[in-house]
Amino acid sequence: MHYMYTRHKASVTLKLDKEMRLTIVKKKASYTFFHIGGMNVSNNDLNLKLKLADQNLSDSILHRNKHSLHGVSKEAETYILFNLGIDSMDGHLNGALCLEQTDPETLFNEAKDFFSKDRRGFVIWVRDHADLPLEAYLKEKGYTPLRIPGSTGMLTEKPIELPKTPEGVVIRKVACETEIEDYEVDVRDAFNKPAEVTREMFSHERILTGESVGAWVAYRDHRPIAAATMVFSGEAAGIYYVGTAADERGKGLGALMTAVATNAGFELGAEVVVLQASIAGEPVYSRLGFETITHYRWYLVEPGAF
Predict the structure, then answer these.
(1) Order of strands, edge to edge, in the sheet holding 29-36?
(2) How many CB atoms sit inside 10 A of residue 271's CB?
(3) What is the pLDDT of residues 110-145, one digit of tens each?
(4) Of the candidates 204, 207, 242, which has an alpha carbon nearest to the alpha carbon of residue 225?
(5) Could you say which DSSP state residue 218 is in?
(6) What is the tally of helices (H) and strands (E) in the chain?
(7) In the chain, what are the domains?
(8) Any residues with CB less than 8 A from the CB of 113 and at least 6 apart, and which?
(9) SS3 for 35?
(10) Measured in whole angstroms, how far is the alpha carbon of residue 104 from the centre of its chain?
(11) What's phi and psi for 276, nearest 5 deg?
């Protein structure tokens, strides 16, 4: 694959290397570009997108934690710690997430202290683009990632053409207590979560409703069968907890709910919309136009470890 870079009547022909990276050298200037899926972006542009993705992830976690019944958090200069107040090894609920370079030992010890009073297990997030020293530290201590390469960090910069709504399906934006309960039911069933965990996750209406957050539920015959959440912060919107009831999968509902939530983010003024994809979700999001920009790995720290 070749690329042409032209400036001031000068041009250079370039080739991608094995890491999907190309470098332009003209006179004394040097430029580095990355080819990500269908996007060609500069190093600075990619770093900005990654920062927006990380910050939205953090903001979505803190938003839920702030409004939940028993949530507590600690916001340090370079990382956040968050405890929803109930046992769950879901990294969005109980964990540690870096936003800047952080000393691995400091983070690990601070996280252990933070969760020790509850004897609660937690997840340490590793960002593929920024936390490799932390990952090396965790591996030296005998921890292994939940899966490799991890959840796929994905991004789109444009609205999505809405897929056709299946016959007999109605989509509603969550706005009342009954719809919050329906959303909880869908997340509980789609993600196989205990009822006491989902009750805590959605223990206040502000978690799913407000100026910067939205949630949608799809119904068939008044039964909730699919859902998605959008959280808007800064210049980005993030899509979270896209879930479909087991007997309704394969009918395009995941794509439809993702598109609805994504477009709502752009309507609020987002420059980009981001998400972290599961193995099953990644091909769905790719078909909708999302591009891979990174991976996030979870390292589980069980309560018996401290």
Answers:
(1) 21-26, 29-36, 39-42
(2) 14
(3) 999 999 999 999 999 999 999 999 999 999 999 999
(4) 242
(5) E
(6) 7, 16
(7) 2-36 (no CATH), 45-150+297-305 (3.40.630), 169-293 (3.40.630.30)
(8) none
(9) strand
(10) 22
(11) -115, 120
Place of tokens 């477009």: 263
Amino acid at 36: I
Q: How many CB atoms lie within 10 A of CB 285?
A: 26
Structural tokens at position 151: 């959840």
How many residues are given for the chain? 306
pLDDT digits (tens, 9 = 90+) for 29-61: 333 444 455 555 568 899 999 999 999 999 999
The two structure tokens encoding residue 120: 């609660």
What is the percent of the chain where pLDDT is above 90? 84
How is residue 297 written in tokens? 């790995």
- Of the candidates 215, 211, 205, the one whose C-alpha atom is nearest the C-alpha of residue 173 is 215
Retrieve residue 123's tokens: 């997840």
Provide the token pair at 31.
Answer: 């430029």
Output the DSSP codes for 37-48.
Answer: TTEEEEHHHHHH
Round to whole Å and give the CA distance between 241 and 135: 26
Give the containing element (helix H, strand E) for 97.
Answer: strand 94-98
3-state secondary structure of 143: coil
